[in-house]
Write a structure and sequence with these properties.
Structural class: mainly alpha
Distance between the termini: 40 Å
Length: 68
């Protein structure tokens, strides 16, 4: 584990987002980092495509979860 230095405004944005998404500040930062890395590695994919692929890799059928 290491320490990442970020500016105060970004930290505040992460803090606010973490409360909305019911995640810890660290979990929210990790989520944004992971999604950003996936987006850079797959520039032709939309956010929805990336999330769908991640759910499939985790063996989660979204339609079953949401009752569709």
């Amino acid at each position: 584990m290491g320490i990442v230095k970020i500016n105060d405004q970004l930290h505040e944005d992460i803090r606010k987002a973490s409360s909305v998404m019911v995640r810890s500040i660290n979990a929210q930062a990790e989520y944004w980092i992971k999604v950003g890395m996936l987006a850079e590695a797959n520039p032709d994919m939309t956010f929805t495509d990336i999330m769908r692929e991640q759910m499939q890799q985790a063996d989660i059928e979204v339609r079953q979860v949401i009752g569709g």
